[in-house]
Amino acid sequence: MADRNGWGRDRPVLTGSPRSPPPSFVEQANVTDPGIYDEFEENWPECWEQAADLLSWDQSYETVLRDEEAPFYQWFPGGKLNAAANCVDRHLESGRKTHTAIRWEGKHGERKTYTYQDLYVAVNEFAAALRDLGVEEDDVVTIYLPMIPELPIAMLSCARIGAPHSVVFAGLSADALATRMDAADSEYLVTCDGYYRRGDAFNQKSKADNAQLKLEQDVRTVVVDRLGDDLPHVLGDDEYDYHGLRETFAGETIEPVPRDAEDMLFLMYTSGTTGEPKGVVHTTGGYLAHAAWTSHAVLDVKPEDTYWCAADIGWITGHSYIVYGPLALGTTTVMYEGTPDYPDRDRLWEIVDRNAVDIFYTAPTAIQAFMKWGSEYPARHDLSSLRLLGTVGEPISPRPWNWYYEHIGNERCPIVDTWWQTETGAVTVSTLPGVSEMKPGAAGPGLPGMDIRVIDESGTEVDPGDSGYLTIARPWPGMVRTLYDGDERFRTEYWDRFSDPDTDEWHYFSGDAARVDEDGYITVLGRVDDVINVSGRRLSTTEIESAITGVAGVAEAAVVGRSSETNGTDVYAYVSTEGGYDDDMAVREAIIDNIETAIGPIARPTNILFTPELPKTRSGKIMRRLLEDVANGEELGDTSALRNPEIVGEIQAEIGEE
Ligand code: ATP
Ligand code: MG
After folding, report:
1. Where is each Acetyl-coenzyme A synthetase N-terminal domain found (predicted)?
2. What is the ipTM of this complex?
3. Separation CA 612–CA 558 (nearest Å)
4. Residue of 406, 370, 398, 424 lying closest to 579 (CA atoms)
5. CATH topology of domain 23-485
6. More confident residue, 1 or 91
7. Dist. CA 395 → ligand 1 center (Å)
8. Could you give the C-alpha distances from 299 to 147, 293, 302, 309, 322, in angstroms and in order?
């Protein structure tokens, strides 16, 4: 079959053997009827009422979707609701006061449990405090906190009084915080004295102070005392102690403010993997409905579950699947402050075991680390409570997928490989775990109601087996409404390329390249910009990486293009191995062999560089942009956005010695 884009001509789709959902899972799944796809199709957009029905509305909406001003869509317009009331209050009314809402696992083994009643009290008191500090409806409150319970409490307190929150990942720099506060004109900040990082007390407050020096506006700051005597701090003017405020407003209750479905719930920046982070605006009704519905249908969350999404709330995954989705459904959500390897590499499995976690959701970067460390760590614990596994954030290749399936799920738990973005708000592509077959290496079809299309440059859908641009041809409830830096950038980033305003056809462009198979399953091939052009053939870096990680002993790989006089671009591969494996000839040969078999000799790397780690963003994604600069001997920009900046120097030194 010809591939108009030349990204995937005539070769087998790189996925593992399909697997059916285990019958024990299907028996109890929230969604089991394959008819749901047709049902949504025939009844679109009203089908999305199923999602809206998972919420409690103060006033019902006039219509499901208003699209007159596309691409500025409105979902459930006219409806009124409050996100905090949906995530907290209504569970008290339904007799779940003593049910655990948040189970917090601290870095040093501390534990805290918040029942829905506890959460209600905390959110009301802090909402009262925020109001007293002057926060009004629609004021943006910036939250710069690590993974402590005060983070979701602060988010829900904002939501209660109708103040959009902007959570800035705690590991980001003072500059990053200042830029975000400045862009949103935010005059309120919730932060902490510090937190433990690898055993040391790390000063967060001084970063927050530095950020404020760069701001023109006056800021009122609430400081959570996380470290106590380990890091004494003094409060200055316009600075307030969180616990002190809670005491001042002890027992206060605040009526949740009814918000329009289209009112902003929060502002969230993208990870910044491909360039300047984009400030994404999410609204109250559509976002919450989509997050709740996907928690129900994709993650199979039930109120009696203990559910754990091991992401950071500082990214969209944590917003939708630690806070809003699971709490809207009244389940127990686990929140973990630490890292997976402290005190030992079995830390996560110890938490799963002790809490009898039912559902576990993480990222490929973590799964690859687990694989690298070895299966003896999960083997130390009883993981039989697990029912479903999930992954999000980057493509996962078949080998780590199978490792996860076997060593964590014991071949009993379906895996959902969920493709989505900060901009989509919630999951958009995934199998439904109680319905569909899983294909390792392919995320799955679009969810019911989604119109996912892989298209070529002219906008025509590609044939099965071919690759193209991953786009969405119909709006969906959780979609980004605009970018904080303006409607114009919103149109140019996502809509202009494949839409035709004259015929009122709107196609959202994700920025990702993908291939679709005969069953409509999507394999994400990476960012469009990550596709490299070797002698006129466009090759997907993800696919070459997948061939490399298919080799026993290889944990992770990153492939970039290096300019070459002969081919235009050469393939340059960075590889990191599992414990016990080294850079040896056998591994190199196996890598080349695998690439030639899976893709062809054209994709054969001219260089394979072994490195103990790959540079990653704070959200755990490989920074190919930087690796490309390194391979090309170019000057590097700012590396402060990296989680492990030191590795870049090590790689450069290694290349220098070659
Ligand atoms: P920026 O947009 O600033 O470059 P980012 O795209 O990394 O940052 P996110 O919104 O956190 O920020 O990530 C979304 C991207 O993550 C998707 O566009 C896709 O490239 C990747 N991704 C997420 N889930 C999956 C998945 N299951 N399979 C493949 N890729 C995924
Ligand atoms: Mg993106």
Report:
1. 36-87
2. 0.99
3. 12
4. 370
5. Rossmann fold (3.40.50)
6. 91
7. 9
8. 22, 9, 9, 10, 12
Looking at residue 549, its pLDDT comes to: 93
CA distance linking residue 166 with residue 422, whole number of Å: 13
The residue whose CA is least distant from atom 1 of ligand 1 is: 272
For the cut 50, the answer to whether the pLDDT of residue 209 exceeds it is yes
**Atom 30 (ligand 1) nearest CA:** 394
Question: pTM for this structure?
Answer: 0.94
pLDDT band at 439 (very low <50, low <70, confident <90, very high): very high
Residue 10's pLDDT is what?
Answer: 36
CATH 3.40.50.12780 domain residues, the chain: 23-485
Please give the Cα distance from 354 to 383 (Å, whole number).
9
For residue 394, what are the contacts with CB-CB under 8 A and spacing of at least 6?
363, 364, 365, 620, 621, 622
From the CB of 524, is ligand 1 less than 6 Å away?
Answer: yes
Dist CA 352 CA 594 (whole Å): 35
Question: Is the beta carbon of 271 within 6 A of some atom in ligand 1?
Answer: yes
* Residue 269 CA, ligand 2 centroid: distance in Å: 10
Q: How many angstroms does the Cα of residue 227 sit away from the middle of ligand 1?
A: 34
For 576, the token pair is 């990191």
pLDDT at 14: 54
Residues of the chain with CATH 3.30.300.30: 529-654
Amino acid letter at 378?
A: P
Cβ(559)–Cβ(573) under 8 Å?
yes
H-assigned helices in 558-611: 585-598
CB of 546 within 6 A of ligand 1: the answer is: no
Whose C-alpha lies nearest to ligand 1, atom 31? 394
Strand extents, DSSP E, 76-193:
80-81, 100-105, 111-115, 141-143, 165-167, 188-192
Dump strand ranges (E) for 198-346: 200-203, 220-224, 239-241, 259-260, 264-269, 279-283, 306-309, 332-336
CATH number for region 529-654:
3.30.300.30
